[in-house]
Amino acid sequence: MLAVRMGLVRGHVLIETIGRHTGKRRRTVVGMHVADSTGWVVAEQGSHAAYVRNIEANPSVRVCIKGKWRTARAEAVPDDDPKLRLDGFGRPRHAANVRRFGTDLLTVRFDFAST
Question: What is the pTM of this model?
Fold first, then answer.
């Protein structure tokens, strides 16, 4: 987690959600593609992933990209094609692993606040 937080793991970030039951901060490492002021994640376990359920309960999140925290509003995008989205990341190895281990792919969009 420290290497991701410092920006040493290409294409991965640390997201911070608020626990839907506990109200505590929860941090999770995810693969993210950032384009302009939007970040894209394909959740391998879809709406079964705890961080996705936390986002559905409270879409205000923080994302640590290369050691800098940014605030964002996140939302699941069930109408998006997650396999096509993965192909757009330009990281074929990452896409292959997500497809291999994922059971219920779901796209999650992160809109970053202007700074």
Answer: 0.91
